[in-house]
Amino acid sequence: MTNESTARAQVRTDIGLAARVLPTHYPLETFIAVNPLAGLEPIPFEQAVRRAGDLYGVRGTLSEDRYRNLYRAGRISDGDLDRVLSRRYPNLTREPHVQLGPRSLTATELMRADLLHGAPVPAPVRRNRTRAEQWAPELADVVDAHTARWCAAFFGTASWPMPGRERGFYAAWRNLAPRDRRLPRSVRASLRAVPERAEDAVLEALGRAEVGHEERITYLQAHLTRLPGWAAHIHWCTGRRTDIDLTQYLAVRLSYESALLAGRSGAALPAGAPPVLPSARERVTRLVEHWGLTGVTETQLATAARILAALPVSAREALWQNAFEGQYRDGLLAALCRPRTPESAPADIQVVTCIDTRSEGLRRHLEARDGYQTFGFAGFFGVAIRFTGLPGGQPADLCPVLMAPAYDVAERAVDDAAAARRIAGLTTLTGAETAFHAAKDAIAAPFTLADAAGWVAAPWAAAKTVSPAASSGVRRWLGDLMAPAAPTQLGCEAIPLDERVLFAQAALATMGLTRDFGALVVLCAHGSSTENNPYQAALDCGACGGQAGGPNARTAATILNQPEVREALRGNGIDIPPSTLFVAAQHDTATDRVALLDRHLVPRSHHGVLGQLEADLKAAGTALAAERCTTLPGARPRASAKRSARHVLTRSADWAQVYPEWGLAGNAAFIVAPRAVTRGIDLQRRAFLHSYDADTDPDGSALETILTAPLVVAQWINCQYYFSTVAPEAFGAGTKTIHNVVGTAGVLSGQSGDLRLGLPWQSVAAGDRLMHEPLRLLAVVQAPLDRIDMIVDRNPVLQRLFGNDWVAVAARRDAGSAWHRWTRGGWHPWDETESTDRTTEKELSR
C-alpha cells in the first residue's frame, strides 16, 4: 500500500510539472488575458518560442515571407536590420569588406542580404510526440476525437448532461466509454478493464507504452499539448473543483491510447526529422545567383561563408522580429523627446481613466478642449472589492487576478419604492430570459418554443437583423419601462477608515495627483457593449475577469468624497479643497459614449461644470469614433464625425457583427511617466498610459506597485495578442463565424475538437491583413535608473520578464535625460550596440 501511495503521489507530481508548459484558460464569462507561454518565461524569449515549436509545431514569430512583405512596405528598413545585426554581433563592423566577384560588401550588408533573399526558414515540426503519433498517427487523431467529445459532454450545457458526471469526469467516463459502439469490440473490452482510480490508470498506461520514469514528464507533456485548449481549461479547474483535474483527463487519454495501440510497440515512425537547412556556402551561392554575379572565386565564397556561418538560419526570424520592433520603439522614444507645449493654468476638470490603450484616444480628444487634465491609473482604481448590485445575487470580484478582493461593497437604495420597482422588473426580465434559454437548449423544447413564441421571435429577429440600432433602442425602452432606473449609492462602511485613507493616499500619490485639484475629478472606468458575442468579456477589462470598472470607480469616488477621509489625507500632506468633487463615469469602448454615474449625488453647486463635462465628453467620444471608423471593416473611411458615431453604435448593437471594435489590438508600449511626456502626441491607441511622478515617490513604492502589477498584466495582454496573431492555429480562437459555445468553458471551431485558446482572428486581423502588429511590450519609464534597479533586484517576476526579453525597458531620469536600455549587464544608451550573443561574436572574431 505504501508503494502504491508513493507511486500515485509521484505521478500526480509529474503531471503537475508537465502542466507547466500549458497556458491558463479562464472561462468565457471571466475572460482574462494570459501569456500562453507563461510556463516558459524562465527562459529567454527566443529559446521559449523554439521550445514552443517543439511542443506544438507552430512558429513563435511571423514567417520570413511576412517580414519581407513588411520590409517592402517600408515597415522595416535597412537601418533597422543593420542596428539589430550590430547589436547581436558587435564585431561585425570590424570585419573587412567581402568581395564577391565585382561586388564589394560589408559583413553587415552580406548578413542583411541573406535575411532579405535567403531561402525562408521552414515551419517548426512537433518533436514531442505520443506513442500513437510515433506508432500509428491515424490513431492519435482518434484519441483526440474521443477525448474532446467527452470533455465537451462534461463541460456542456446542463440541458443534456453527461450521465454520472456528479461522480467526477474519470468515473463517469469509465462507466460510459465501454458502451461506445463507435469503438471496436476489442477496444471496448480493454476500457472495461481500466483501473478504478485515475492515477492507477495513468501508471498502467505509461507502463504499457514503455515510458520510462526519466521520460515521463516529457511524455505527459506530449499528451497535454495534443489538445492544449481542453488541457489548459482543466488545468485552471484543478483546485477550483473536485470533479475534474489533469490526472483524470490524462487517465482518459492514456487509456484510449493504450487500448487502441494494443499489440503495437517499438516500430516508431520517424519523428518528422527537422528539415535540412542550407549550409553557409549554399546560402552564399544563392546570393551570387540572385545578383547574377560572375568571376566569384573559391576563396571569396569561403570568406563570405565564414561570415554567414555566424548567423544560423534558425535565428533569422528572431532578428527580423527585433528589427520589426526596433522601428516602432525608436520612433516612439524619439517622439517622446520632442518639446511639449506646456500646460496652461490648472484645469477645472481632471479625468482619471484606465491605463487601457483605448483610453488614450479619449484622453487625447478630451485634452484638445480647454480646461482638461488627464491621468492614467489601473482601471479598478486601487479598490479590490467583491461587489453586489442592487438586485442581489452572486457577488462579483472586481479586481485583477493578481489580487484577492479585500472587502464587500453593496449597492443600496436611495429611494426604497423606486428600488423595489426596479428589482421586481429585473426579476421578471431575468426569469423570462432564463426560461427562454432553458427552453431553447432543451432537447425537444425548441419545437414547442417555436410554435408558442415564433410569432414574436421571428419579427424581432428580423428587426435585429435589418435595423440593429433601432431594435436595440426598443429593447432599452422596454427594459426601462419594466425596470426603471432607481437612484442608489454604495455602502463602504465595511472598509475601515484607515484602509480607506490608505487607498486614497496611495492612489493619488501613485498617479501624481496630490495638489492643484480642479472642481471635478472624474474617475472614468471602461466596459464594452456588444451583441451575440462570446468574447464580450475580452472587450471589458483584460485584467479583472471581464468585468466593467463602473462599481470600482463609484467606490473610489465615494471614499474620496468622504470628509473623514479628506481630513486624514490633509494630515498626510494631501489637501483636497472642499469645492472639489469626485464623480464616477464609464467609457463604453464599443460606442465611445461616456456615461456619468451617480448623478443624483452631485450637488447643485457643480451642475454647471457637470453639464460642460457631459458636452465635452460627447464631443470627444464623437471625434474618437470618427478616428476608429477608419480602421473598422465595412465602415465609411471618410464619413462625418456624427455619422461615424452612429455607425459604431450600430455595430455595437448588431448581433451579426464580428468586428464590433478592435479591443486592445495594436498594443505595444507601457508608459510610466507624467502626462506632460505624452500630451499632444497621437499614440494611435497603442500605449498603456500610467501616470507617475518620481518626485512624489522618493522611496519608489508607487513605482514598484506599477511595475509588479499593472505592467505584468499589460504583458499578459500583449502576449495574448502577440501569440493569437503569430500562431492562431495553436494560441488563437480561429474565426468567429463557426464558433460553438461549450457551456461557459469556451468555444469550439465547428461541432467538435479542441477548446480554442486566445482571441478570435477577427480580434487581430481583417482577412489576411493584420490589425495587430505582433510586437513585444516596451516599458517606458521616467524615473531614476537606480530606483528601477532596486525594484528589479527584489522582484523575480521583473528579473524574468526583463532579463529574458519578454519585455524591453527604456528609461530616463527626467525629461532632459537621454533614454537608456535595461540589460542584465547594466544600463546602456538606447542607441548603443550591446552584444547579446558572445559565442557568435567569438566566431566572427576568428
TrEMBL record:
Q: Where in the cell is it found?
A: Cell membrane
Chain sites annotated for binding Zn(2+): 354, 356, 526, 541
Example GO CC term: the record gives: plasma membrane
Q: What membrane topology does the UniProt entry give?
A: Peripheral membrane protein
Key word Membrane present: yes
Q: Which cofactor does it need?
A: Zn(2+)
Any Pfam family hit: DabA
Which UniProt key words apply to this protein?
A: Cell membrane, Membrane, Metal-binding, Transport, Zinc
Q: Output the Gene Ontology terms for molecular function.
A: zinc ion binding
Highest taxon of source: Bacteria
User: What HAMAP family is this protein classified in?
Assistant: DabA
Q: What does this protein do?
A: Part of an energy-coupled inorganic carbon pump.
Subunit info here reads: Forms a complex with DabB.
Q: Which family does it belong to?
A: Belongs to the inorganic carbon transporter (TC 9.A.2) DabA family.
Q: What is this protein called?
A: Probable inorganic carbon transporter subunit DabA
* Species of origin: Mycolicibacterium duvalii
Upper classification of the organism? Bacteria, Bacillati, Actinomycetota, Actinomycetes, Mycobacteriales
